Amino acid sequence: MNDKKNLIKPLAATLLAAALSACSMQAPAPAKPVALDNEDWYQIRTEKELYVFDDYTTYREFVKSGSAPVKQNLGKKDGFGRDIVLVLKAADQGKDLKTLSATRFLDISLPPAQPFYGELRDEEGIIYVFSRYGDMMDMYKIGEPTFSYVDIGGGPDGQRVVYVLAKEEPKPVNQIALFHSKYQ
User: Fold this and answer.
1) Residue 114 pLDDT > 50
2) 73-104 pLDDT, tens per residue?
3) How far is CA 152 from CA 125, 128, 159, 163, 173, in A?
4) Distance between CA 23 and CA 45 in Å, rounded?
5) Where are the domains of the chain?
């Protein structure tokens, strides 16, 4: 019995010392949060390609000039047989495509910010404007909006602008103002 007491005291002291030293160890500093870049998303549909952007400046430059710093064909097609091409800013070149917002939005693996802004241009020059990511994904899948408000000639060069809405949603005054602010 005496041997057990002699063994228990040092063992208890060792366990107590280990527990105290574990408590005093500092946890590593939390990693810097990664910016989600999930506030906006842009697409341009042509007859053969679907260009996807997560950067407004790159999108606007592509609309003006048709060129971009980096184009990356994903090797996939959308539901209408178009090749899906990521159009990236130069800083994104060489990054893992699965980490980029444009790809993550397509894969439905990035929650959208609130508020959200989306824009899609088609081969006829119509500009579709979205305030909800889900509406943009629905259009990606079915090709046309279910509900909308149309502003004929309301685009920067007189294009038709289609504001995609939810059922029975009123005229999207705030979305119209946001769209026009992007093109001033």
Assistant:
1) yes
2) 999 999 999 999 999 888 888 888 888 888 88
3) 12, 12, 7, 11, 15
4) 57
5) 40-182
Instruction: Measure the CA–CA gap between 168 and 145, rounded to whole angstroms.
Output: 14
Please give the single-letter amino acid code of residue 126.
I
Length of the chain: 184
Per-residue pLDDT tens for 119-153? 999 999 999 999 999 999 999 999 899 899 999 99
pTM: 0.77
d(CA 171, CA 166): 11
Looking at this protein, which amino acid is placed at residue 110?
A: L
